[in-house]
Design goal:
alpha+beta; Glutaredoxin; five-stranded mixed β-sheet; four-stranded mixed β-sheet; 14 strands; 19% strand; globular; Thioredoxin domain-containing protein; antioxidant activity
């Protein structure tokens, strides 16, 4: 048996070749091709993924524009999200559909980041600006929901835990804190950007929370986003593949298969060395201190390579110190 990690689910399948008659990633075989609702892949295109025994899952995912990482020896395969052709619209999940008509600050954080101390400040902004049609939605990138729980106690804004990394994949988030502004129509008002709500770690990140929060208030009250960027920054193919290796590594770590997980973590680091949401985010599952020597080793590695920890540099950044 193989565990399939896709669409926020874990499903058991018999193998990487799916027998005819069974759905594949929600698609069903029809006389004229493979269909899901009104969408269909013509038979002549689907033939590239079909074998005598059934449908090659990884090849079929490729036809859908979805990357995959398979580790048949460990019994797991992860399939990524489709490439999003419309980058100016916020991908929907959890509470977002119910907030249409409001301006939203989508705040990515984690218990393994000092930005966890910003949550009370985000809660204050949520309450302060709620009368202007504004809401904070916080997304924890903790792979273990229990690690996020203590920091969410007493908060009233919508909050979710992205334990499988799917929301980070949808929004191409490579580190925290990252914030996305979403307008009342569900479109991107400001793309994924490093943003703080307090100056707790200003000596390390060189970011001015005063500038950032003032810009947020201007947007909520006056409608001025302070930028012409209105699309999410698209991930590269390597970044998408690195996240899938991270998803497989997380599954293996939860199963106690540390050595196998290490191979996938190494692959993720080679593909996207700057993706701390994977490299640092999985440290707690591996029993590694995310505030310890390994994290600072990675920081030094990235700085030596000229890769900024906080990407991209926002317009409210100041020189550290």
């Amino acid at each position: 048996m193989i565990t399939l990690l896709a669409d926020g689910r874990e499903d058991a399948i018999d193998g990487l070749v799916v027998p005819y008659g069974a759905p594949v990633l929600g698609w069903e075989r029809k006389p004229h091709g493979w269909c899901r609702g009104e969408a269909c892949i013509p038979s002549f295109r689907a033939a590239a993924a079909e074998t005598a025994d059934g449908v090659d899952l990884v090849a079929f995912a490729g036809l859908l524009g979805r990357q995959a990482v398979a580790d048949p020896d460990e019994g797991v395969v992860a399939v990524g999200e489709p490439v999003e052709p419309v980058l100016d619209r916020a991908p929907e999940f959890g509470p977002l559909p119910g907030l249409r008509g409001a301006k939203v600050a989508l705040v990515f954080w984690a218990s393994w980041c000092g930005c966890r101390y910003d949550l009370p400040a985000w809660e204050e902004l949520h309450r302060e600006l709620g009368g202007y049609g504004f809401s904070v939605v916080s997304v924890s990138l903790d792979r273990d929901p229990d690690h996020a729980g203590e920091w969410l106690a007493g908060l009233t804004h919508p909050a979710v835990v992205d334990a499988d990394g799917r929301i980070a994949e949808l929004y191409n988030v490579v580190n925290v804190p990252t914030v996305v502004w979403i307008d009342p129509d569900g479109r991107i008002a400001r793309p994924q950007d490093t943003m703080t709500a307090t100056d707790t770690f200003r000596s390390m990140n060189g970011l001015s929370s005063e500038r950032a929060v003032a810009a947020l208030r201007r947007w909520v009250i006056e409608g001025d986003t302070g930028t012409e960027l209105r699309e999410l920054r698209a991930p590269t193919a390597d970044e998408r593949l690195a996240r899938l290796h991270g998803r497989v590594a997380a599954w293996l770590l939860r199963a106690g298969r540390t050595a196998a997980a290490g191979r996938h973590l190494a692959a993720a680091a080679a593909l996207a060395p700057h993706d701390l949401a994977v490299r640092r985010g999985l440290m707690p599952l591996a029993g590694v201190d995310p505030f310890g020597e390994e994290y600072f080793r990675i920081r030094e590695e990235l700085e030596a390579a000229g890769i900024p920890i906080y990407r991209p540099l926002p317009d409210w950044q100041e020189a550290a110190g």
